[in-house]
């Protein structure tokens, strides 16, 4: 009699659950529940799109950076964001989706990108505020993702976090220079912080009570901390840095709370986050339009790369036949 030793769905699920519980990384060839795969594709794609769209607000200031040194640093930072997008699209591809498909979903508005990149960059000080606050928030959210249960995502995050850390310091340094400059420069730095503070807190997502995916994602070891936990850590880290900069944070309710051992902060306007996520932020239309145009204008690069790859493959297979 033949024994059917095909692993059943339950056995596969039990093995997967054990791996997650034992902190053994899930790799592309391992069996995984469909919901886990879909959640990862959604989050990694959204993350990749954020990096690519996130190049636009800063790209806006490359030609107007105040010195050659500032320009070189900003160009390197924007290039880093492109690189992060590429690592992340590659990580998503290990889950069986195609990069073209993900870009179509971005361009058609079916996949999201971070709310923060729908705000305009009005002055040079915004480059400082983005580096300090936006990259600071990104690091707070992304360091735990280095331990994500899915191997390719966790590994991509290690290098990304190292680069984000440099980005955060360069933002801090821009603001430090401005806040120790002329009164007009200091006012410009303060204005940038005033505009970016609340949107940076919104980057962490809706409050835990309204977060649809957190519980599941935390059980799967994708997210390690909840949106509110990371937001609180960010506030605790940032308040002393603002003091060191000589700048204030635009929240009259911000105060040290002895009892909890954390900074208490004011109510976030969640209706603003909802509006921006729904597409009604200050720059949503402009950002997506520019992205679509850049994609269309880059078609010739993709076609050339594909033609070169075909030619290279044909040459190597012909060489292989000759050698054989
Ligand atoms: N913006 O249930 P949750 C960067 C959506 S990279 C837009 O809590 P989840 C680098 C969420 O997708 C910044 N949508 O969701 C840089 C979901 O909608 P869905 C990006 C948001 O996934 C710096 C719904 O709300 N970082 O900054 C936002 O468990 C400077 C319910 O929310 C990442 O993507 C939002 N802020 O937690 C580049 C990190 N928040 O999909 C250039 C990875 C929530 O059901 C310059 N991602 N939503 O339709 C994550 O950690 C998570 O996805 C969260 C959201 C924490 C963002």
Low-pLDDT stretches: none
Query: What is the tally of beta strands?
Result: 2
Give the strand line-up of the largest sheet: 1-2
The separation of the N and C termini measures 46 Å
Radius of gyration: 22 Å
Based on helices, strands and strand pairing, what is the structural class? mainly alpha
Query: Which cofactor or ligand species appear?
Result: Phenylacetyl coenzyme A
Notes on the structure:
The chain is 65% helix and 2% strand. The protein is mostly helical and 324 residues long. The chain has a two-stranded antiparallel ribbon with strand order 1-2. A hairpin with a 4-residue loop joins strand 1 and strand 2. Helix 6 runs antiparallel to helix 10 (227-245). The longest helix is centred in the middle third of the chain and has 29 residues, at 151-179. The model has no long low-confidence stretch (mean pLDDT 96). Phenylacetyl coenzyme A is lined by residues 42-43, 46-47, 50-51, 54, 81, 112, 114-115, 130, 134-135, 138, 141-142, 202-206, 211-214, 217, 223, 227, 277.
Topology of this protein?
Elements: H1 9-21, H2 34-53, H3 55-59, H4 68-93, H5 99-107, H6 125-142, H7 151-179, H8 183-202, H9 214-219, H10 227-245, E1 255-257, E2 262-264, H11 270-277, H12 284-297, H13 299-323
Antiparallel strand pairs: 1-2
